[in-house]
Amino acid sequence: MIQITGQPLPQMPWQDRQPGSNEVMWRCTLNPIIPRNLLSTSNSIFNSAVVPFGRDGWEFAGVFRCDDTNRRMRLHTGFSHDGINWRISEADVDFVASNPEIGQWEYGYDPRVTRIDDRYWVTWCNGYHGPTIGVAWTTDFKVFHQLENAFLPYNRNGVLFPRKINGRYAMLSRPSDTGHTAFGDIFYSESPDMEFWGHHRHVMSPAAFETSAWQCMKIGAGPVPIETSEGWLLIYHGVLRSCNGYVYAFGSALLDLDEPWRVIARSGPYLISPREIYELTGDVPNVTFPCAALHDPETGRLAVYYGCADTVTGLAFGYIPEIVAWTKANSIV
Ligand code: BMA
């Protein structure tokens, strides 16, 4: 039996696999769990991040990507008792910046939230003369302290590891361009202080078309990696360019615990790819984009939150030991 790190979470959202199903991950029957118009001003709510948060009467908290009816990309806080029904604040997050130049807001999207000790760290795609990785922390999901951007533009999909590795904070990211980047590898970087990032290492590139086509154009880290005795379990998205445009699916990889830029295994097949109507149609069709996961180390249960067609939010379930075994059995490394 593999060991899984993390705090017990018996209250996490969960549905059993349907009888007769052989899917490694399966969708929540309540999908989409967050509708596009939950807020009076929201055009769409998707690609969002949630964490356990046992405070103020809530079980879960999160930072949500809410594009408004001006089609501006904004971040909002949200709270939940069950991880499925969310109360999202009408006001967007008001970051308190360490430096006024950094505090000049252009746009923010695709947040991730990582708990390290007593702080919840938010990383997101932050507009600063093009997209880069914004960094902020909070303890209460009310006041958010914004630090310097982690990297030079252009970069997306900045995802922190949930603890220091070899004494330093660690982050995955995906260097990109100003547009709808038609390339992209995942890199690893380290920082002593969450401000200065270096020691950059290459993690992985898109797969060969002949080997695993869903991830042959670009890839990017999804939720915060989960520590297991078999390595860091990384759920990541991959993109295929079809005659009708980009298709976003997601799969899994195992990274070395001490040197996470070393890939132990990587799934050839996808875990989830656009299939349901709310994934196939919306503002951007054919997108399943994971940004967060909850897990219970005792039962091995995993719940992945993913954006659907850049419009609404879905939830999918699986068992970590099964996903780890499946990743190794179907590895293309
Ligand atoms: C990416 C990001 C995501 C989005 C995806 C599909 O580049 O902008 O937020 O879900 O494209 O449009």
What does this structure look like?
The chain has 333 residues and is mainly beta. It has one domain (42-329): Glycosyl hydrolase domain, family 43 (Tachylectin-2, Chain A, 5 Propeller). It has 2 helices and 22 strands. The strands form 5 sheets. It has a 5-stranded mixed beta sheet, with no helix packed on it. Strands 15, 16, 17, 18 and 19 form a 5-stranded antiparallel beta sheet that branches. A 4-stranded antiparallel beta sheet has the order 1-22-21-20. The two termini are 23 Å apart. Beta-D-mannopyranose is lined by residues 47, 109-110, 180, 248, 284, 287, 289, 307, 310.
Radius of gyration: 18 Å
Shape: globular
Series of H and E elements? EEEEEEEEEEEEEEEEEEEHEEEH
The number of distinct helices, counting runs of at least 4 residues, comes to: 2
Structural class: mainly beta
Percentage of β-strand residues: over 45%
Alpha-carbon distance between the termini? 23 Å
Count of distinct structural domains:
1
Catalogue the unreliable spans: none
What hetero molecules are in the model?
A: beta-D-mannopyranose
Give a quick rundown of the structure.
The protein contains two helices and 22 strands. The protein is mainly beta. Bound molecules: beta-D-mannopyranose.
Topology:
Blueprint: E1 26-27, E2 42-52, E3 60-68, E4 73-80, E5 86-88, E6 95-97, E7 108-116, E8 119-127, E9 131-138, E10 144-146, E11 155-160, E12 169-175, E13 186-191, E14 198-204, E15 218-221, E16 226-228, E17 231-242, E18 245-255, E19 263-266, H1 277-280, E20 288-296, E21 301-308, E22 312-319, H2 320-329
This protein binds beta-D-mannopyranose.
